User: What shape does this take?
Amino acid sequence: MNKGLLEGKTALIFGVANRRSLAWGIAQAWGAEGASLILGYQGERLRENVEELAASLPKSAHALCCDVADDGQIEKFFAAVSERSPSVDLVLHSIAFAPKEALEHEFSEVDRDDFRVTFDISVYSFLAIARRAKPLMSRGGLLLTLTYYGSEKVTPHYHIMGAAKAALEASVRYLAYEMGPLGIRVNALSPGPVNTLAARGISGFTQMLKHHQDKAPLRKPVDPAEVGATALFLATEGAGAITGQTLYVDCGYSILGA
Assistant: This one.
């Protein structure tokens, strides 16, 4: 039996909610190549579903509760990780949230509390996870997050999330600079619109999906398996010189002028 590309590596994955989650597509790709996975889920309402998904992976996987809005839970999560594995090689941050009102209002009408919550969950959580993962990544490795083209160009109804994703991409660059000497690479994947639980909370998402499919050079929607395959590439030695980058997995949509 051939040895998997990620055999002997431990991966932490934040953001699996169900089988449609992009985080789940990446978990499958990394798990199929031999990585040992630990899935962090938000709260009790997701526990049974995530545990069932973890059990379906080809190699042993654990599911641990971790609400990234709570520093105490993040500390507890990483303490549990330390007990299970002496080192961590791969970390996926696939977490974003904005209150419904913040997505429905005009951008200038977003109130202070909704702004704070959006940036706390969607951006600061990546820093909090990176800070606690760093001591465990003594062999170097990869910190990976997910973003969207609405960070660069105005996307109707995306509003506050566009600003948050722009801040997330800037965070990728600063973390890459900081952690490069430790052999830790930091990158973001930017898929086109995918029919996930989070995406369906955006008004007009169905129209956004159709527009993308009609206009993207490849004339097709993005398959979560394709996102997983790109994440697998970034986790391997072949991507050893790639850091601080946002890689588009969007069927070419981001090259268009309009």
In short: Residues 10-252 form a domain with the Rossmann fold fold (CATH 3.40.50.720). The radius of gyration is 17 Å.
